[in-house]
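The instructor's notes for this session suggest beginning with a concrete chain rather than abstract definitions. Hand out the sequence below and ask the class to guess, before any prediction is shown, which regions might be ordered.
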Amino acid sequence: MSDGASRPARVIGLTGNIACGKSTVLAMLRELGATTIDADELVHRALDPDGQGYAPVAAEWGEAVLSPTGEIDRSLLGQVVFSDPEQLARLEAIIHPIVEREVDALMSEARGVLVLDAIKLFESGLARRCDEVWVVACSEDRQLERLKRRNNLSTEDALMRIRAQSRQEEKVARADVVISNDGAIGDTREQVLAAWFRSGAER
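After discussion, reveal the predicted structure:
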C-alpha cells in the first residue's frame, strides 16, 4: 500500500476498547466527510453463512457456536472465546487475514480521508496502514456501565469481555490522538473537531 495512487490521501486509524464510544466518534468523522471502513462489520460479514470465515469457524467450534438454523451465533461465540485467551487467538488467526484482505481492497478504491475503524487495530497489524491513530478512551466504570446496558450482560460477563482485550493504557500510549469519551457528547465532538482540523484532514 505504499503507492500513493492506490490508497487514500490520508488514513486515520480509529480504535478503542469495547464500549468506549468508538462508533460515536466514527459517526462524527463520517459527518465531517471521511470515508469509513468498519473492520468490526467486516468481521460480522466474514462470519455470515456465505462469508469466508464461516466454514473454518464452524469446523473449529461446531455446535457450541451455531444457532438452531446453522448460523454462527456471535453471542455464543463470544462466550467461548472471551473466556479463554487461546481460543480467542485461534479465532483471530482465522478472521484477521480475511479482514485484512477486505480492508486492502476497500482502501485501494478510497480517495480523500479514510477512517479505518478497528477494535484490534494494533493487534491485527492494521495500524501499519494508517498515517495516524486515534484512540477513544473512557474510564472502566463508564465502559462497564455502557457494556452492561448495551449487551444486556451481567457485571461478571461484561468485565470478562473488557479484560479479554489489551489494556486501554497500552493503546493510549501508542496513539497520535486520544479522544476522551467520559463526558457529554458535545465534549467528545469538540475533541473530534479539534483533532480533525489540527491534522489537516479537512484539506
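Then share the key points. The first strand starts at residue 10 and ends at 15. Residues 1-5 have pLDDT under 50 and may be disordered.
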